[in-house]
Amino acid sequence: MKIMASGELTELHEVIHPDAVNREATAEPPDCRVQGPAAFAATARWLRSAFAELAFDIHETAASDDLVVVHCTMSGRQVGPFVTYDEHGRVAQAFPATGRQMAVTHTHWTRMRDGLVFEHWANRDDMSQALQLRWVPPTPLYLCRMALAKRQASRRQ
């Protein structure tokens, strides 16, 4: 998690299995939906493109056999659009930068293979994130900004 926030993406090869799958990538850009370290690097780029000062404060970890669970808080300041994608890889929604800080709890579940992350799931408090960043309830002006951001993101695809 600290690697995802720090930007030291070359280190992902040391902790992510070549066949690893991120089960949370369904709303992420298409390059996050492949297997292995490249997918996790794409997820890190996606998060860091929207959030400056991205950090994960780890509170607790637990392990049983090949399962490792991490309870943490993700924090950052939204400086870029946060773009989500549909199942076909098309832009689903775009939340323009608000400049606001957020801190939300996550629980990450990873299955290990050969000492490396092989599978990943997460439980996130997305509603708290949306409230802290003032995505909801949206003002009429923010809805217009969202429509513009979605159009711009779709054109870049």
From TrEMBL:
<dbReference type="InterPro" id="IPR009959">
    <property type="entry name" value="Cyclase_SnoaL-like"/>
</dbReference>
<dbReference type="Pfam" id="PF07366">
    <property type="entry name" value="SnoaL"/>
</dbReference>
<protein>
    <submittedName>
        <fullName>Putative SnoaL-like polyketide cyclase</fullName>
    </submittedName>
</protein>
<dbReference type="InterPro" id="IPR032710">
    <property type="entry name" value="NTF2-like_dom_sf"/>
</dbReference>
<dbReference type="GO" id="GO:0030638">
    <property type="term" value="P:polyketide metabolic process"/>
</dbReference>
